[in-house]
Here is the input.
Amino acid sequence: MPESTWKIISRTFCFLLIPIILFAEVSGPSHSMMQKMELLVLQLGVIIFVAKGMSILFEKIKIPGVVGELTAGIIIGPYFLGGIPLPGFEHGFFGTYLALNPGATLPVSPELYGIATIASVLLLFMVGLETNFSLFLRLSATGVIVGIAGVIVSFLVGVWTGMLLLDLPFLHPETLFLGVISTATSVGITGRILTERRKMDTPEGVTILAAAVIDDVLGIVLLAVILGMIPVLNDSGQSVNWGYVLRLGAKAIGVWLLFTILGLVLSRRISKFLKVFKGINVPAVMAFGLALLLAGIFEKAGLAMIIGAYVMGLSLSKTDLNYVIQESLKSLYLFAVPVFFVVSGMMVDLSVFSSRTIIFLGLIYTLGAILAKVLGCGIPLLFRKFNLLGALRVGFGMAPRAEVALIIAGIGLSAGLLSRDVFGMVIFMSMLTTVSTPPILDSLFKKEKNGTTEELLPAENVVTEFPLPTLETVEFVSAKSLQLFRDEGFFINQMEMAHKYYHIRKNDIFITMICKPNGINFESSPDDTQYVKTLMYESFVELNEIINDLKDITKPESLKNDFMEGKDDKR
Amino acid sequence: MPESTWKIISRTFCFLLIPIILFAEVSGPSHSMMQKMELLVLQLGVIIFVAKGMSILFEKIKIPGVVGELTAGIIIGPYFLGGIPLPGFEHGFFGTYLALNPGATLPVSPELYGIATIASVLLLFMVGLETNFSLFLRLSATGVIVGIAGVIVSFLVGVWTGMLLLDLPFLHPETLFLGVISTATSVGITGRILTERRKMDTPEGVTILAAAVIDDVLGIVLLAVILGMIPVLNDSGQSVNWGYVLRLGAKAIGVWLLFTILGLVLSRRISKFLKVFKGINVPAVMAFGLALLLAGIFEKAGLAMIIGAYVMGLSLSKTDLNYVIQESLKSLYLFAVPVFFVVSGMMVDLSVFSSRTIIFLGLIYTLGAILAKVLGCGIPLLFRKFNLLGALRVGFGMAPRAEVALIIAGIGLSAGLLSRDVFGMVIFMSMLTTVSTPPILDSLFKKEKNGTTEELLPAENVVTEFPLPTLETVEFVSAKSLQLFRDEGFFINQMEMAHKYYHIRKNDIFITMICKPNGINFESSPDDTQYVKTLMYESFVELNEIINDLKDITKPESLKNDFMEGKDDKR
Here is the structure.
């Protein structure tokens, strides 16, 4: 960062700190509601800046920002810097709750944890929304096989590592949780790398995305099953009534399936209901309200919040509200989600890592988690026309575990099902898989070799091209046609890429518009090309009318004098 | 609402309620962190829907939505429906905290109150941002006089009502709070009515807006002074060391003034610092982070959160980030702010109103609050070329008290400075002033008579007109010129009005663009008209080039065949 930036930052913060010095007041011993609120507001402010700062710093050295946020949490958390007494904060800036509630399962206040919880609901709601449901229904057999194999292998490896390392039986909550946690791929980091290297539409990219969908769904189902079974496991300890356990598991799958189907069947009604609220932002906030309700209801019913949030997201994913919601909830997301990651980091008791055993166990668990995906996803691919390079690309692409793993681990910790040591192991694994994946993937994709033994993926979408003379005309025509699409009730979402990409969708129609310097391309299913053409024809007709109207006015010569003299009136 | 809407709503909610029935589990007696979170998430979901539902319902019968949200809070709050035991919620849906903490000053959990607190910081940050600072500096003498007179009179009337009704001395926290609370005009409701009736730029509208700015600033200063003085008042009871009190008050004004000046001086640096974070949403969230920090620091320093939040908003109000922040934080606002109003309503113990005395006191306080503004703002106007009608319009326009009054009352309640009875009185006053103002204002503005004895308001802004033949061409040219403004670093904000209004601003330049069916008008200061003209000239030149490029392509005859045959390629 240039020196001037530091100057700006330091001056901004000096500005913030003066009032305390000027108006210092000694706070009383009681921890009243106002003091809790004061602490909450200060903590949130600090978290937002520390999280962003660390995330930027880590991204500078090519490490995903999430890892920076987790690290920030560990550093400023109650077990480390946040526990050091400061003037005005006798138990440290983040240590008050832990100091006043030494027996608590979580070291942060319910106020702060509440924001993190809301963020986790929002996160899984977004994951649900991002599930490309039509892709899910048309998934290639390869994607399904890879996804299922990856989940099974990593679940088993997770459970097995738990059994071996912690000396616990198979059907123990802690081992089962370690199993579920290691299934949950976070495809975001892989997605960013694929997008940067423009490999999203390669066979590897498509397979990773498809497998990630399967992965999310199966992960949620597994979590439901295990949460359904835990009451019995806790009671009986070692000797397990298998029939009962299986019945409970089946019931959990049943509930999940019922809700997912109901959600999908009712999706149009729900979307219609949300549109009762006018505007763009209000329906989005209401949709999030529904996600909160279903999350709370699922939790109340003994499952987990995130399952409800995911089901609601999935239900709305195929409606035309999808992109509107995602776009509109961005600021809420940017505010809350870093709080979730930082608070997750705060749960880590660093003293856990002073024991070499935990570091060793964490490393083994990490290695197991990576190998499980590389082997589980990679080996089936070798039988599906992928070569070794392709199999490795997909396998490592599925290796990162982040938000979902952390949320599940947090559920385990707060319910007292995971010990603090094991939670530390999970954070360790999550950080390591996330840090190690980008460089490996980068080097695997650097070689411009194909990952398949023959050309896969027959073209499904049709490209319709409209060549145009200049970039300016492209912008002009695209603005007009986007407006026509909007008038027709389409929702439009601009992607950030080299060219201007627009996702244009209404109900089942999904069109991609790509503005290149020399023309506009549309990608759509063959059925929709006629629609695209008619709409473009209309755009051109309207443009022509406008041009005829404007032709005479915009002759620069006739304008210049007029303008420079001006014909302004006093009001 | 049509019957089908009800069907949609009822089916959506059935979908939500099934899991509890299917997977019902009896929750244990302990109130663990997970149970708190479950309750928080459910409560938030319910609050979002009840708040919106009531707000829509109330607006149907022409009552401001805020009143609906407050009413929703009273109805579902722990003192009323929310306290009734339900299966699964033994203390009622909102009653758990009150039942487990019978001695608590506030009847809601810190988790839920935390969201409301964050919302109050966001609210005052937005109020600060919306303060038109250049307007403030160029305020007409009339606006200043009206604002100051309104604040002084309503403060005195508030204090006096408190003294008389509650039999307390002048310098008692409760009376002083009642005074501050009754100063805080909420101009939002008046603003909406003025906008609907297109009276925003009448002498009455301009005076109300100017007075409201003064009102906000003085209200914040008064709050700072009184919070600064309270430690002494509490100690000494009846006999007061006036010198000390005044010294503390002066110190509080000093701190406020110092920060406001510092904030304004550093505003460019702060805005520069925020722009270090790329994108649109991230700087906005970071700006809110700064508001949280300054809010917490002010609270820590013995002042109040909202003062810090307001100062930060005011600092950023004259930077070009202003509209970006307001636009970007919309979803956070729509999520959090209704929670604030509903939670405010929840604080009201309905049993308070069972005593006729409180209703009577509330009515007197309300009447005093309205009269204070009508007389305090109205009488000076009679000496400033307004007639009686104009004076009444401004006076009643300043009468509604909502968010700021509620926040200040909440501060008093949670700090134990206001009793629950007096808090109930304040809510009563806030609801009554808000409900009664719209119909009165409406009828006062219905008469198309002038409110002034002669024509006031010499034209300050200059209108530059660009006539265009059709609405289509207007859209076209405006799109191009908006793009050029954007390229020049301007921030653009579209207002929702009959015509398309755009606020275009960068640093100190403030231009309004109005797209009418027959042309584009710009309103700007005389200094900026040349800039507008040059930019429009550039737009026309660029448009001309594009037209020349497109002229041949868009001839419909030549296109039609081409399109209908299609020139699509398989990918």
Notes: Chain A touches chain B through 145 residues (CB under 8 Å). Residues 203-236 of chain A form the longest helix (34 residues). The CA atoms of residues 79 and 349 of chain A lie 5 Å apart.
